[in-house]
Specification:
heterodimer, A: about 240 residues, alpha/beta, 10-stranded mixed β-sheet, disordered N terminus, B: alpha+beta, Alpha-Beta Plaits
Chain lengths: ~240, ~600
């Protein structure tokens, strides 16, 4: 499979501040610096309520941060500024530059696996059956292409979701606990296939997970959240890179 | 950055989703069809029934008939004018009903029946399977044919009777039955004849001869009428005498004619009496007025001469001339030749000097169709630019100004044409023209009978049925639209996560919004197709079941393409309105829900 050439920083997020309030308690997410190189396989870990989903919403362009000094994404050599995009422009960036792998795959039940994988291509007015077949073969789901998601196992669904996330060669893939619904052995297989394909395609991957054992020695970088109580009723959660778990 | 937002993909995704949930989709198809199908059937029944009733009303010419309720003399010109009215389909003059009974005889069966006029294009006969009669033909009503026991093509004897003194005179001829009208044409015992035959019957009953049928009688000879009387007296007319002469004579104006004005007014000098008066009228009076005047002036040695106002005539083809009456007595030295029938020859003329005509030139009245030869008196000349004729001829020319007269060369007589017709048979072009024509005729003072009330009743029934249909349709449409809206909204709620995923992978809001709209479109079209199938099957069944009561081309249940196209559009638009709520819900789905709900 032909890797995509990337140079410099694939994703750069600096000086991000996003706050939300609930029941009189203010939660503030801060990302001082998160710059990732093309093809890097990155993990984001943290306890429940630390802001992982909020970060994923912001990185997935479904939520606009309160403030971000730098928020850019490389797109085939162009640097896209993501701080001030409108709704339709964000949808366009999502369709062309970002891939998603959700906890249970997020496959559309009324489409076959092949149609699910082909959806991002079709959305970008592309058609590449050979690429679909290669991805499916690499992920071990070539036999499942014409089945509907309901007839697949959990692992097969996740592999199909990974294929859908990578089929249009996005610069960034966001995976929200992609192995949470499968057994440990399958989780490790999926992680390895995900990592391998990401490297091959030059896609930067951010995987949010609770399972720290899955990451040990297998990811390029790990980010975690540091929680602190700044004042009464104010919780600060700051993303920082950790050396090892 | 430009992006299509996946708009082109949405229809196939919406369709794939419907296919995936085919059981639910089928239920929705059936729900739409269950609302639309009966409505189509209901509207088809209403439309078909009304069309059939309306068609029957239209087809039955009796509903377009306009009958005058008064008997008066309708002139041929007036009838022609009415016939040329674009709202009139057919008109034939009718003779007096009292003169329109004849006796038909067939193989010993005798039947006195009502004779009605007909003519080519008679809708009552044509639409009741009978060809309008031609010369020497008749069409019998169903009842008349039954009583006479005759068939089309048979020849019947026609007998017309008239009372003369204490006995009857009869005229007979033969007619062929050209057709027998369907029972619905008329329930009367009647026969339809060409108008000329009915005119002959009427003339015979009036005592006249009908030479072309060999029926004897008198000729309708034209008699002179005058515009006044020239009266010469030895004494001036006193007011009492004036009143006496005017009263009951038809004369209304008395003008004294001094000697100097007599030539101008009369066309000849009159010096036989010292006092000359002109007693005139605007309406013509018959020659008998002369006798009446003579009786009232008995013992006064009056001179009584007929008078007509100047008549514009034409000699040969180019010579226009004014004609006046010239009685013999004013010129004792002059006498008209008496070589005509009864010792009179009124067709003589005295021309002005200088008019080089001799022999028997043709005299005509422009625009009146009367032409006849006159004998030019070469021994006399008029004393002005006018011509003089015997008073009888002047009176006949005067009558020709008001009535149609023809010259019968063989009989050497002036014959009167019929004055007018007592009634007419008329049919409006369409049912909708009936009320207009009724108003027009009633505006002319002719009360008429029409089927306008029946037509109005039908229109009212149509309006009421439409109202009932729309009330039912409104209930059905509201229910159907509500069911569709609820189903689509529930479907969107159920697929919130999937729609969130679509939003997450880059489908724009507009594309997502169209997802339920496309689904509503497919459901509407599918539901309508199913409803159409239901309607076609049921309509076919209903029309088949009632076929024995329907004529060819009639339907109890019928919708035209335009109705179906309108219904299809209505269903699609209603479906889109019903889907609008679901579409509104789709727009409010945040792609983040796809992430979080996992």
């Amino acid at each position: 499979m032909k890797p995509l050439s990337r140079a410099g920083t694939a994703l750069c997020l600096q000086g991000l501040v996003h706050a939300r309030s609930h029941a009189g308690i203010r939660f503030e997410l801060r990302v001082p610096d998160m710059c990732l190189a093309p093809g890097e396989f990155t993990a984001v870990v943290g306890p429940s309520g630390c802001g992982k989903s909020t970060l994923l919403d912001i990185l997935g362009l479904v939520m606009q941060p309160d403030r971000a000094d730098i928020f850019t994404l490389q797109d085939h050599g162009r640097c896209l500024d993501l701080t001030c995009l409108g709704t339709s422009a964000r949808a366009a960036v999502r369709s062309q530059n970002i891939g998603y792998v959700l906890q249970t795959g997020g496959l559309l039940p009324f489409l076959t696996v092949r149609q699910n994988i082909a959806l991002p291509l079709a959305l970008n007015r592309l058609k590449d059956n050979r690429r679909i077949r290669e991805l499916a073969a690499n992920l071990g789901i070539a036999e499942q292409l014409d089945k509907r998601p309901a007839f697949l196992s959990g692992g097969q669904r996740q592999r199909a979701a990974i294929a859908r996330a990578l089929v249009h060669c996005p610069g960034l893939v966001l995976a929200d606990e992609p192995t949470a619904a499968v057994d440990e052995l399958t989780a490790m297989e999926i992680r390895d296939q995900f990592q391998c394909l990401g490297k091959t395609l030059g896609t930067t991957t951010i995987m949010v997970t609770h399972d720290r054992s899955l990451l040990r020695g297998r990811v390029d970088r790990i980010f975690s959240f540091r929680l602190e109580r700044a004042a009464h009723g104010v919780t600060l959660s700051t993303l920082h890179e950790v050396e090892a778990l | 950055m430009t992006h299509g937002g996946g708009a082109g993909l949405v229809p196939s995704l919406a369709w794939a989703d419907l296919k995936h949930e085919w059981v639910l989709s089928l239920c929705l198809f059936l729900a739409v069809a269950a609302v639309i199908g009966p409505l189509l059937l209901l509207f088809g029944l209403k439309n078909g029934t009304m069309e059939t009733l309306r068609g029957r009303l239209l087809e039955d010419p009796r509903n377009r008939e306009i009958r005058p309720m008064v008997s008066r003399s309708f002139t041929p010109q007036w009838l022609d004018q009415l016939k040329n009215n674009p709202k009139v389909d057919f008109l034939v003059p009718a003779t007096r009903s009292i003169s329109a009974s004849v006796e038909l005889i067939s193989k010993g069966n005798k039947l006195v029946l009502e004779a009605l006029p007909s003519a080519p294009g008679d809708p009552l006969l044509l639409e009741n399977h009978a060809r309008p009669p031609e010369k020497k033909e008749c069409v019998l009503s169903w009842e008349a044919a039954r009583k006479l026991d005759v068939q089309t093509g048979q020849t019947l004897s026609l007998l017309v009777k008239r009372l003369k003194g204490s006995g009857f005179e009869s005229g007979a001829t033969t007619v062929t039955v050209s057709g027998i009208a369907d029972p619905r044409a008329t329930a009367r015992v009647a026969a339809f004849f060409p108008l000329p035959l009915l005119e002959a019957v009427e003339a015979f009953k009036d005592g006249q001869a009908v030479p072309e049928l060999g029926w004897n009688g008198r000729l309708p000879v034209a008699g002179p009428v005058f515009d006044g009387v020239v009266l010469g007296l030895d004494q001036p007319m006193d007011p009492v005498l004036k009143v006496r002469l005017i009263s009951g004579t038809g004369l209304s104006h008395v003008t004294a004619l001094p000697e100097g004005s007599r030539m101008e007014s009369l066309g000849y000098p009159l010096t036989l009496r010292p006092y000359i008066y002109l007693l005139s009228t605007k309406t013509a009076v018959p020659g008998s007025v002369l006798t009446t005047m003579a009786n009232r002036l008995r013992g006064k040695n009056p001179l009584i001469l007929p008078w007509v106002s100047p008549i514009d005539a034409r000699l040969e083809t180019s010579q226009n001339i004014s004609i006046l009456a010239f009685p013999s007595p004013p010129a004792p030295e002059f006498a008209w030749n008496d070589s005509g029938p009864g010792g009179k020859n009124p067709r003589q003329i005295i021309l002005p000097k200088g008019l080089n005509l001799s022999g028997q030139p043709v005299l005509s009245l422009p625009g009146k169709g009367l032409e006849f030869p006159v004998q030019v008196r070469t021994d006399q000349f008029s004393q002005g630019a006018w011509a003089l004729v015997p008073p009888d001829l002047a009176g006949i020319l005067n009558l020709a100004r008001k009535r149609e007269i023809r010259w019968d060369d063989h009989k050497d007589q002036f014959i009167l044409h019929r004055r007018g017709y007592a009634a007419f048979r008329m049919y409006a072009r369409t049912m909708d023209h009936v009320p207009d024509l009724k108003l027009e005729l009633e505006g002319m003072g002719i009360p008429v009978h029409t089927e306008a009330e029946r037509i109005r009743d039908l229109k009212e029934l149509d309006r009421h049925l439409s109202m009932i249909f729309w009330l039912i349709a409104l209930g059905g449409i509201l229910g159907g639209a509500g069911a569709l809206a609820a189903s689509l909204y529930a479907s969107v709620e159920r697929k919130r996560k999937d729609l969130g995923v679509l939003g997450l992978i880059g489908f724009g809001r507009g594309s997502l919004l169209s997802f339920p709209l496309y689904q509503a479109l497919f459901l509407s079209c599918g539901g309508f197709a199913l409803a159409l199938g239901f309607y076609l099957v049921m309509a076919g069944l209903i029309n088949h079941l009632f076929s024995s009561q329907l004529s060819a081309g009639e339907h109890f249940c019928r919708l035209y393409s335009i109705h179906l196209a309108a219904a299809a559009w209505g269903v699609v638009i209603l479906g889109q309105i019903a889907a609008a709520l679901a579409a509104f819900r789709v727009v409010s789905i945040d792609p983040a829900e796809a992430l979080r709900d996992e």
